[in-house]
Amino acid sequence: MAPALVSTPGEPFSSSRDTGKVGSRATSILHRTPWIPPVAVSAQGIYIELENGQKLLDAVGGAAVACVGMNHPAVNKAMKEQIDRVPYVYNMQLSNQPAEELAKLLTEGSNGAFELCGFASGGSEAMEGVIKLARQYFHETGQVKRTNFIARQLSFHGNTVSTLALAYHPARRAPYAAILDNDHFHHVSPAYAKRFQRPDESEEDYVERLRAELEAKFIELGPETVIGFVAETVVGATTGVVAAPKGYFKAMKSVCDKYGALLILDEVMSGMGRMGTLHAWESFGDGIAPDLQAIAKGLGGGYASIGAVLMSKRIANGLRDASGLWKHGHTYQGNPLACAASLAVQKVIKDENLLENCRKQGAYLKKLLKERLQGPNSPAAPFIFDIRGAGGFFGIEYDFDCPEAATFDLKGGHFAMLVQAHALEHGLIIMGFNGSANLEGTKGDVSIIAPAYNVTSAEVERIAEMFGNSVEAVLTKHRV
Ligand SMILES: *Cc1c(COP(=O)(O)O)cnc(C)c1O
């Protein structure tokens, strides 16, 4: 067992968190976690080794990032070669080969959906870039009254001040609510049928209700003031791998089109193959391509801090006819090393046909998880609200409102965190989130599993087994 986990991730509010006091142990990092995370020293494929020799199976690729595993020889080679060529140029002075080639691959591989690409150094930066670019587009095309964004409750678009304001995750924004811009960022309901579709509604009725709500919000704000509607194609780090009901994106786009606003998709987590197709909207967006899109996590695959903004013909033409440039930049934008890494990751996905493997192994994983957790003999079955997802992205949502929960002290809503802690101590990395089940974000637990696209069936079997063991062990521990 890892000594660094004496203060367990699942009990962040216990007195053992004192071990995580700044300076109380050998760390000078102000960590994000109430416990001190163990230190990784080496990695291969989906395995990561710690300082103490413990080997972990990373079933979630960090945060749905490491899509081709660690230490892939082709990616390592490309990065080493790029270091020897040109590790850095500043994009206000020079461009570089891997950046040019990566942008070409991203736009030319989009079947006409995107014409131009701009780089960032991560997901939040990409979403900041999207916000500014969308405004720049209207500023330069003479629609200066457009200043409002409409996004959704229970969403996540990043951790910078503007992306926190754009999104709506109650806990993550709480400390900053007083300084967030509420004048230009507005919110409508999430599209989460299993929790929010009413019992007397059909799927079509539900979609129509959400469409009408968006249109009402446009009218309330003044349709000529709306820049665009922003959504994660498949919601990641809030409700946990939730796809919209059928017809939703078509309906939302119809409202945007009616009033000349933009449809903006955040595929930072769900894009670049995570759902089994390059873009999540290809399989979960009614085939509707966005005007603007942010990508990041699977773009660099963990080898590089990189994100990108993808621009449709509409945006590209508007800007070409006006200033012809992106009035936005960062020092590390289009960094040669990051772009070389990302380019190599994308080539590996293509050359090794990894999207097909991801879909195939993902379907197998989903089947195993359902058998293990929802099967007739599963002690966890009464507490499994939903097992969902596709490609390499799966959410397991729990329910402790059921009558069976009366004999467990799990009312606190930290089950997913307890499972995450137990799994980590027993060699499996997964993610847990709270607050998936109501708009206040005070109820609900979900675990996320998102292995590398080149995961093998033997590894998938191990993931399902280890995950099932963790869920059951936490239940056993909390039976009263
Ligand atoms: C992770 C994430 C972001 C933020 O990306 P960072 O690289 O952490 O800044 C934005 N949007 C979505 C949907 C994400 O999942």
From TrEMBL:
Region (Disordered): 1-21
Alphabetic keyword roster: Pyridoxal phosphate
SUPFAM superfamilies: PLP-dependent transferases
GO cellular component: cytosol
Molecular-function GO term, any one: pyridoxal phosphate binding
Family: Belongs to the class-III pyridoxal-phosphate-dependent aminotransferase family.
Protein name (record): RING-type domain-containing protein
Species this protein is from: Favolaschia claudopus
